[in-house]
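Please predict the structure of the following assembly.
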Amino acid sequence: MKSSNSKRIPDNRITAFIISIILPVLIIALWAVGSDNNWFNQSIIPTPHKINLQFSKVIEDGSLLKHITVSFVRVIYGYVIGALAGVVLGILVGLFSKLDQAFILLIGVLRPIPPIACIPLFILALGIGEDSKIALIFIGAFWPCLLNTITGIKQADSKLIEVAKVLGKGKFIILKDIILPSALPSIFTGLRLGISTAWSCVVAAEMIASSVGVGYLIMYAREMSKPALLFIGIIAIGIIGLLIDLFMQFLQDKIIFWELSRGGKNGT
Amino acid sequence: MALEVKNVRKVFSINKDGIEVLKDINLNIKDGEIVSVVGSSGCGKSTLLKLLIGLEDVTEGDITINEKKPYEIDSTEVGMIFQEARLFPWKSVYKNIEFGIARKDIPKKEKKELVNHYIELVGLKGFENALPDQLSGGMKQRVSIARTLINKPKILLLDEPFGALDAFTKINLQNEMLNIWEKEKTTMIIVTHDIDEAIYLGHKVVVMSPKPGIIQKEFKIDISRPRSRTSDDFDYYRKKIYKEFFGENIANIEYII
């Protein structure tokens, strides 16, 4: 057995955490000092104190939570459908070379189009309601899931497949026990990229046409000249994005447990 | 199970003309015999094994295993062990070995006993739940051996099985394979580039040469078992086989190796 360095890991984690908070703390401190000394235009960059007051307000009246929940539900809808479609199609394209040839040009042309460029089209086709937003999130989640799944399926180790063939295993067993587990790390990369794109897409969609959601909150704050609210919106987007990614990473470590025993830890 | 290879030729169509990897291959392997196949890389010795197990098809010639063609043979009858352990990283030692079972109609309880028996046989008791990446190279190859042996194959094909292991682990595993042979009298064909290994294990050593891969010579190894690598008999065969590879000029050997 390889010696485990379980003794060292907790120390490392605490140190890593402390190091990781140094920069954010420095920036906030600089911001506070700068605000006190009038380095910034306060109608653009509010003081931390003002943000704090605004924050208590939007928490108490529940409006921040309402906006976040609405955005979040939209993301979940679009993401679940988009990721599912991407992974399923990706598995098929990865498995069957004829299908791969059929799709290669279409994928090549459509993939570079930023999802946000489709907003006007979706609004025209689906209206300014939920459908156009979910369609946008769908597209955002779909591409990374599709492309990474295809890569993962194609990368399945032919030597392992040979072992299964020698043992007389059928196609279904080979898919279930070898090709899919081989592709999982890559599929997960797609899922993680997909959720972060989905989250960016919802904000963009809400900024253009919406009456609720975090993206709307930011636009509303600008129109009302409430920089503190604007900052809260922006920071909320960042923090939620981080939490989603941490959750996905947690899932990844649970599902692709064998990667953890390969010595090197997954990147954060 | 006896095995016969008759006038086999194999061409890979890499370019327009194709590359001839095996030519005029004739082999007669008796039931319970261990045959070592030695040759430099590219002499087609691994391809020969792939033909025997039905992963590749012959271009010309015939292979018969107990009057059957390779692709007609049941997976329980012929097993193969590769140079790399080729374990599934997402399966525990137990699950990897369990995957080897080719029979489909086996009851759960019997399955469990079978897997545990083979885990014990290869000395991995206590490691059932370990993942392949937590094991050393030798342990991985043990799992791979158990995964193949669990079907009790009558013929075992070994493709440089110990080539990636350190000298001590290698000798241990060679002896364990011989123990298994003593018990089961499995017919074994072992492809290797290690001449000592070939002599130590084989009843017969087949020397192959490349471009195209042909059988250059066959040696019957007449040394009683257990064999000693330091005995004069052993050295006699070693010298003969070295000469087959490098000609009369033995002085060159040290240089080449």
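Residues 5 and 263 of chain A are 9 Å apart (CA to CA). The longest helix of chain A spans residues 171-208.
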